[in-house]
Amino acid sequence: MAPASEQHNPKTVCVMDASGRFGSTLVQRLLRRGYKVHAAIQNPSENQGLDCENKNLKIFQSDPFDYHSIIEALKGCSGLFYSFQPPQDQPTYDELMAEVEVRAAHNVLEACAQTETINKVVFTSSATAVIWRDDRKSSSSDFDERHWSDINFCRKFKLWHALSKTLAEKTAWALAMDRGMNLVCINAGLLMGPELSITNPYLKGAAEMYEDGVFVTVDLNSLADAHICVFEDVSSYGRYLCFSHVINSTEDAIKMAQMLDPASPQPQSHDQDMRMIQQKISNKKLNKLMVDFESGPQVD
């Protein structure tokens, strides 16, 4: 039983970090579903379209490296939606980012363990924490939630995004199991949108992902729906691969290349290579969970 000062509405949740495109969209969707939302952002100047006038929205300046600011944002909340936002002074993924992301995950999960009102944590991870392994070409089965990227393989080929996501997610699972927390992870594909560029760290190894049939993307609304669905469904557990599309044809690959670099030359013809790469990754677990999910109005 939580102390009287910490009594909470079961529909009060925290979104951290709420400043990015995904975080702010998730906040909007939750508000529309009747939730009260604590929007935790690192930098108030990065408030991306949050409706500060909404009486059901409270905005907190919260740094995942400042334990007390996390505790403040979580007070009275029954759940947390957590996605890592790289610090302003270290915006690019490199060898050191894994340590930064692991430390942030540890702080946030520890704060959740110390907040009696928190019943469930939805942790945003990545498909890159699933697909990078030495034996990926020889495996006869599709990649699914049971697979983990190999840490040594990621280090060897400098797949820093995959390394960071894998280590951070493993840290979250270890802490959740130790503290008896209800944790669910969304292993998302590459998030599509106007801000996507060739510098996105997810794209390291894109050619290999394409050839292996595991290059997956997700649109904003599908990703937000998945997070809300696994939070609301009491039967949700473990990890969920989340993607809307598989890049597995020449046409798909050309469209992606043009989107990432509009200045790149348009191929003269690709008639000779109309093959479809066999899809080798499955999101059946999430699809099954979302069969009866009603998403409500979409956010543009």
From TrEMBL:
GO terms for molecular function: oxidoreductase activity, acting on the CH-OH group of donors, NAD or NADP as acceptor. Keywords: NADP, Oxidoreductase. CDD domains: FR_SDR_e. Coiled coil: none annotated. It holds the Pfam family NmrA. Residues 11-143 form the NmrA-like domain. InterPro entries: NAD(P)-bd_dom_sf (IPR036291), NAD(P)_dehydrat-like (IPR050425), NmrA-like (IPR008030). This is NmrA-like domain-containing protein. It comes from Camellia sinensis var. sinensis. The lineage of its organism: Eukaryota, Viridiplantae, Streptophyta, Embryophyta, Tracheophyta.
